[in-house]
Amino acid sequence: xxxxxxxxxxxxxxxxxxxxxxxxxxxxxxxxxxxxxxxxxxxxxxxxxxxxxxxxxxxxxxx
Length: 63
Hints:
Layout: E1 7-8, E2 18-19, E3 22-23, H1 42-52, E4 56-57, E5 61-62
Antiparallel strand pairs: 1-3, 2-3, 4-5
């Protein structure tokens, strides 16, 4: 997906999908004035991945 097709998002700078103020997951992030239902803080996503992988991230790299 080209950067031009991605939606700007300044609402959740700590979201796992936010890269430099751009949403890398959604083509449309207009939710009619409501908050993004897909928002999840990056640290929460990383913690969930660590737990699911038994403490392992990227192969054998221990956190």
